[in-house]
Amino acid sequence: MQRVEDPRLLAGRGRFVDDVAFPGMLHAAFVRSPHAHARIVSVDASAALAVDGVLAVYTAKDVDWLAPLVSSGPMRDDVCVQSRTPLAASTARHVGDPVAVVVARSPYLAEDGRDLVDVEWDALPPVVDPLQALEPDSPLVDEELGTNNICHAEQSAGDVDAAFADADYVTSIRFHSGRSTAAPIEGRGVVAEYEDRGGGRYNIYSSTQMPHLLRMFIAPVLGVPAGRVTIKAPDVGGAFGLKCTVFPEDIVIPAVARLSGHPVKWIEDRWENLAAGVHSKDMVCTMEIAAKADGTMTAFRGRFVTDSGAYSSVPFSPLVDSQVAGVYLSSCYDVQNVAYSIDNPLTNKCQIGAVRGVGWVPGQLAREVAIDRLARTMGKDPVELRLQNMIGPEVYTTPFGQTYDGGSYAAALEQARDAVDYAEFRQRQLRAREDGRYLGVGFSPFVEPTGWASASAAAGGMPIPFFDTASVTVETDGSVTVTTGLHSDGQGHETTLAQVTADELGVAMDSVRIVYGDTDSSVFGMGTYASRSAVLGFGSIRESAGQVRDRLTRIAASLLEADPSDIDLVDGVARVKGVPDKSVPLQQIALFGYFGGTARPDDIQRDGLTATAGYDPGETYANGCAAAVVEVDVETGLVTIEQLAAVEDCGVVLNPTIVKGQVAGAIANGIGIALLEELAYEDNGEFISGNLINYLYPSTTEVPSLTLHSIETPSAVSAGGVKGVGEAGTIAAPAAIVNAITDALSPFGITIEKTPVTPEYLRQLLRAADHDRNKLVGA
Amino acid sequence: MKVGMTVNGVGEQVDVEPRRTLADALREDLALTGTHLGCEHGVCGACTVLVDGQPVRACLMFAVQAEGASVVTVEGLAGVDGTLHPLQRAFSEHHGLQCGFCTSGMLMSALHLLRTEPNPGRERVREELAGNLCRCTGYAGIIDAVVAAAAELGTTLREP
Description:
The structure holds two protein chains of two kinds. Chain A is an alpha+beta fold. Chain A contains 21 helices and 30 strands. In chain A, helix 6 crosses helix 7 (248-260), helix 10 packs parallel to helix 20 (728-744) and helix 15 packs parallel to helix 16 (533-560). The mean pLDDT of chain A is 97. Chain B has a five-stranded mixed sheet with strand order 2-1-5-3-4, with helices on both faces. The longest helix of chain B has 14 residues, at 103-116. At the A-B interface, helix 1 and helix 19 of A face helix 2, helix 3, helix 4 and helix 5 of B.
């Protein structure tokens, strides 16, 4: 099936935010801090303003009429609320923190001006190490807060201490999940105009995943009611969670459109994207497992410290990493004694936000690497050890109270094992070692919370209601218009949601149009992130389309003089069951629905053929397993992925092509996290990964052909049995790869303690192992 | 400076500053917004266009350097009636695009490959497209699409 969005995107006729232009539009460039932590002594814009075509330079003082941007995170009592001014007023807190904005006739002139703004800085001691940031004598990143820790939280279930006391084996690891980010090929961008009428209103184009929530967050900062802000999210060139954040630039650009009296466009460059967007997954983890001699795992204990950067991001806060690493600790294992603690120290780095896989990735790494370590310690097979401890396929409630809606936990691992010919591989591995080649295999079964809604959010420690609505209209000619507050930034909603609408109404798919990405024309919705759109989109459309279908059926029944229960609506034609020549086309039903006067049922006279309905499903959890086969060149430290197999169970699949694409893209991202992607800071807080030469991510040559399998365990709770799929591969792949590398290098006895596993890092481990071995030989 | 070039077969003249990139001239002066900018330092390949038949990062070339050249952008691929080029069709059939932002550059790099090597195998496609980054697809659909288009097009793309 060709996607609805394909022809325009392939022809170069997509419309992305940088393709939007208004007459008289000006261009903005931000002056950003080159320091990790510095007081702003003064800003001298005179040289910039002397450039022909530079119209204005605005600092925090010029936008002091803006309310602060407030991060309350999950609105829990134990989470600090942090406020910031959209432009740093007195202190810059990380490299890339915006302190002024230059507005000029062209982007070139705006950048000329930016380079001429003279900021006098008074450098302050930077806070760089997240563990030191938690020490009482650490300098504070944000003095107002009085602490660096956005949240310390602990939770336990069962009797963890007793389980460890009674254990025959205890495995304990420390793992540092590296700092990576979304880095979509299209960065962020905002175009804003201000209309000075009726109390003022803002018309904003933004590359965002959540138009309505963006409006909800920025309207109060701009000081206008939400109804006076329109957010239009046009085609979005990839987002992966980066664009479900509310950024200072989202506020500053509309504000300076108002101040300058011109529409203003800002398109971020790659350095800004990497230095000042959101970062992700930078977590220092410790993971302990208690086990009995027979291999039964009896307890998990984790500590998860998220290096949170300088600001608690809006809306998800750094807990989007630490909290979810902790609360889903038991994953697919029948372990009843579990405990975790989380900390979220601020540091003078870029803020942590919700990027594909979020804290599930570090949590998965810590747990699955530890399980492999336990297996080696016990001399047990890592697959058998996992299968021995796995929960069953039925509905299951974890010790922390999440209720899984059924899944193929063991079956997925078994399929992944078979996909890499596990038994045969072990033979091949032995033969290869005789030739001095080091092959390894690693497994990573996972559970992914999907369809983020009120129940799943609460179960994940983020107790905020999440739901979505859809509005379905059968137009006068029988064509169908659906509006949704979900957004598509590559997921193909114009296709999948049209498909489910067509199925639900019994009409041709090409008669359905999906309208989204505009707060003026779409019903309220919470946006697309957290693998939620398939579940929420399908559920809300099924409910609203179902109501319209009921009306169509009743009209058809009256036109055909039949009972509504005898009407079949298929391919845009209503027929009486068993009477093939009694039929009426949808077009005629629709026309009657609008203009049939009092012959229509009362509710149709009142509501026409439009229905709007919301959906807030119960908890849905996808599951699956990744298996990686790698070869490590011990001379260079280079890891080659020979095979990557993934088994995905996202419940009932709506569109197999799109699901496969989501899985493949997420795995590629996972490969990057495991081997390549690292946003690095120097010890003084200087940022050194500001381009795609230093921040490497996978190209065609790093992603092997993937072996993808699917299992469909219908959700026990969601409409149609659907579960989400967007993040699975990113969650699963890194741990499989790290375990495979460790397995490959088992003759050297090395311990991998961080991602990305770069050649340099592996060589360092191998040199140390050689050194130890030589010492042993010498002794 | 006035610069004359042929763009998608049409003679064009633009008046640009010497520092204006070819990408900006195409996007802003000629309203050909199908060429996208992903990194502006020549790594991601999203802005790839063909200049005198060679793939070029339009973010790293000045418009003035294109004086007298023949430039082909993604807008030059489909027929005037909107009929997609077989390569574009293959991208759709093999789900070789999701958000569509890197797609223009992918198509242009792939077109160059198919014009110079009519029947590249998967490994050659992989090598040639290593200079175009995609964050959505994991590349499998893209490689499938180019291989399929090569099979369909055979030698018809070889330029004289």
